């Protein structure tokens, strides 16, 4: 243990090199005496005897009932342990001096509920920051901004419900982010998805939060080395066969989140009871999800295909074997070549290229073998084009008929909304136009046309109904047919029925 006073003396001597030796000693002595006199108010230099344990560059103030961060921390501190205290806030001026060597800061098990947005401006070289087991509720945009060197950030067991989307964006060296046991309800996809992701992040833990929905399609396309460190068990996810399929795939790939926490992957069944079931039970009785099977890559003759060697670790050395255990070697005249990113490119594909390909991936302490099944269809894309052509023709046909119908509708004499002047000359039509004006003006003209057609079509029924009491039934039928359609459309249609009385006169002959 170092004496704090002698340490401060050294520091002074270094900073005042031009003073002569006796002057230096005088100052040193007077300071030392001052510390002897006022041991309690040593705001200038940390009193290691009282509050902390100082072991060269480690300052440990754990379990000292501190309510504020001690002042006067030595500038050479590399590890500062303030865990298990009663610290409530971390102000911007919690350290008055820069601590350029500080790389570990432990603040776990305090009562922190607030972090100043400038709390970390003097400790830019932090690599490890533990804020777990506190009472933090939100993470704003700027708090972590200076921490460009941070590698590990522990935020588990807080009460975080709000995270700004750019809260972590500057931490380009972040490798592990622990956010479990909070109240997060949104999955922070921006941290891991292509383009916006933190390049070095290999572990993201959002387990035991309040997430209801996962972006499953986006998760599916992530490389395996990201998925391998993506923990989201024990949330309030809604059950869905897609969720089961995703996790079943992860299980086959032996990814850690499923390997280590299989039983903790639960979800809530739809329905009022909110029954919680295991995701892996969804293929059984609870939801009858179809059992997951790894699918083969499919391609056609003469195409180019890229087979991925999607390893669970990054930066592995990859070699490929063709079906029949032929090694893909550099510079031979094989149609398959290994690309710089480790994927296998086959171009052009021949029918005998079907089969199981093997990728051996090696790194210092981990080896992995990945099998990819390739299925080559025995015809080219041209051959299969016929079905496409048929579909295309049908589509064009449909479009043409829609255009014809529209032309037909718009070219009929006097739709009142397109020639209001004419409408005013006749009593019945003026009623009609005022009713039409109730409908929103921003609606799609095509929709309007359809509406009008509908009006005319209902008219024939309606006129019958007025005589033979068929109208209510007709109306119900209409509702049944539209049960699936949007309520907006339904509303409009109902209105159109009301309008139909006024439009009997001019429209009936044209559409029916
Ligand atoms: C901390 O404070 C509590 C009560 O305030 C006391 O019981 C305990 O002894 C204190 N611990 C230390 C290390 O001073
Ligand atoms: C699941 O399938 C089984 C048999 O195929 C059937 O008896 C059961 O009712 C189905 N369960 C659900 C929830 O659909
Ligand atoms: C290269 O291709 C030709 C014909 O496609 C074949 O006869 C020859 O054996 C191949 N050479 C090697 C080294 O595979
Ligand atoms: C990985 O494979 C190589 C070559 O087969 C072997 O020498 C090495 O020991 C293996 N490493 C591990 C961690 O299994
Ligand atoms: C595809 O065609 C080749 C010969 O052209 C034949 O040997 C092969 O069996 C065919 N494969 C299938 C799946 O029909």
Automatic annotation (TrEMBL):
Q: Report the GO terms under cellular component.
A: membrane
- Gene3D superfamilies with a match to the protein in the record: Immunoglobulins (2.60.40.10), Ribonuclease Inhibitor (3.80.10.10)
Annotated keywords: Cell adhesion, Disulfide bond, Glycoprotein, Immunoglobulin domain, Leucine-rich repeat, Membrane, Repeat, Signal, Transmembrane, Transmembrane helix
Cited Pfam families = Ig_3, LRR_8
Where is this chain's protein located in or outside the cell?
Membrane
Q: Does the keyword Membrane apply?
A: yes
This protein's membrane topology, according to the annotation, is: Single-pass type I membrane protein
Q: Which SMART domains match?
A: IG (SM00409), LRR_SD22 (SM00365), LRR_TYP (SM00369)
Residue numbers spanned by region Disordered: 458-512
Comp. bias regions, Acidic residues = 474-483
> What domain of life does the native source organism fall in?
Eukaryota
User: GO biological process: any one?
Assistant: cell adhesion
Task: Provide the Ig-like domain boundaries.
Answer: 272-371
Record field: transmembrane: 391-411
**Which family does the record claim for this protein?**
Belongs to the immunoglobulin superfamily. AMIGO family.
Entry's PANTHER family? AMPHOTERIN-INDUCED PROTEIN, AMPHOTERIN-INDUCED PROTEIN 1
Q: What is this protein called?
A: Adhesion molecule with Ig-like domain 1
């Amino acid at each position: 243990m170092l004496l704090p006073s002698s340490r401060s003396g050294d520091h002074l001597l270094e900073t005042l090199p031009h003073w002569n030796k006796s002057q230096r000693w005088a100052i040193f002595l007077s300071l030392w005496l001052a510390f002897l006199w006022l041991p309690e108010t040593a705001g200038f230099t940390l009193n290691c005897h009282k509050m902390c344990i100082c072991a060269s560059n480690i300052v440990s103030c754990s379990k000292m009932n501190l309510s504020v961060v001690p002042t006067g921390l030595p500038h050479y501190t590399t590890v500062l342990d303030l865990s298990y205290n009663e610290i409530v806030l971390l102000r911007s001026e919690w350290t008055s001096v820069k601590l350029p060597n500080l790389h570990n800061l432990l603040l776990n098990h305090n009562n922190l509920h607030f972090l100043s947005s400038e709390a970390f401006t003097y400790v830019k070289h932090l690599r490890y920051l533990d804020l777990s087991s506190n009472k933090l509720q939100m993470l704003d945009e700027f708090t972590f901004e200076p921490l460009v060197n941070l590698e590990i950030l522990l935020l588990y067991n807080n009460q975080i419900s709000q995270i700004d989307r750019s809260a972590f964006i500057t931490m380009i060296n972040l490798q592990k982010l622990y956010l479990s046991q909070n109240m997060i309800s949104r999955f922070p996809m921006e941290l891991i998805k292509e383009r916006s992701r933190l390049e070095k992040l290999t572990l993201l833990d959002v387990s035991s939060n309040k997430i209801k929905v996962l972006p499953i399609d986006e998760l599916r396309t992530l490389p395996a080395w990201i998925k391998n460190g993506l923990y989201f068990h024990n949330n309030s996810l809604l059950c869905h066969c897609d969720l089961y399929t995703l996790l079943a795939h992860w299980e086959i790939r032996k990814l850690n989140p499923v390997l280590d926490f299989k039983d903790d992957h639960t979800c809530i069944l739809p329905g009022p009871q909110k029954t919680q079931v295991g995701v892996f039970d969804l293929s059984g009785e609870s939801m009858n999800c179809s059992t997951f099977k790894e699918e083969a890559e499919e391609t056609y003759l003469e195409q180019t295909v890229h087979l991925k060697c999607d390893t669970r670790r990054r930066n592995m050395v990859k070699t490929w074997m063709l079906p029949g255990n032929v090694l893909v070697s550099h510079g031979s005249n094989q149609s398959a070549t290994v690309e710089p990113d480790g994927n296998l490119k086959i171009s052009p594909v021949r029918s005998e290229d079907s089969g199981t390909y093997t990728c051996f991936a090696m790194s210092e302490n981990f080896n992995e073998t990945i099998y990819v099944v390739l299925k080559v269809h025995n015809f080219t894309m041209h051959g299969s084009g016929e079905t496409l052509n048929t579909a295309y023709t049908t589509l064009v046909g449909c479009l043409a008929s829609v255009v014809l119908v529209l032309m037909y509708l718009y070219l009929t004499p006097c739709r009142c909304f397109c020639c209001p002047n004419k409408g005013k000359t006749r009593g019945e039509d003026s009623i009609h136009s005022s009713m039409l004006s109730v409908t929103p003006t921003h609606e799609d003209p095509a929709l309007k046309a359809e509406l009008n057609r509908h009006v005319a079509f209902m008219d024939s029924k309606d006129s019958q109904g007025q005589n033979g009491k068929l109208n209510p039934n007709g109306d119900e039928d209409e509702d049944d047919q539209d049960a699936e359609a949007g309520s907006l459309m339904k509303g409009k249609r109902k209105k159109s029925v009301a309008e139909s009385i006024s439009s009997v006169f001019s429209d009936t002959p044209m559409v029916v």
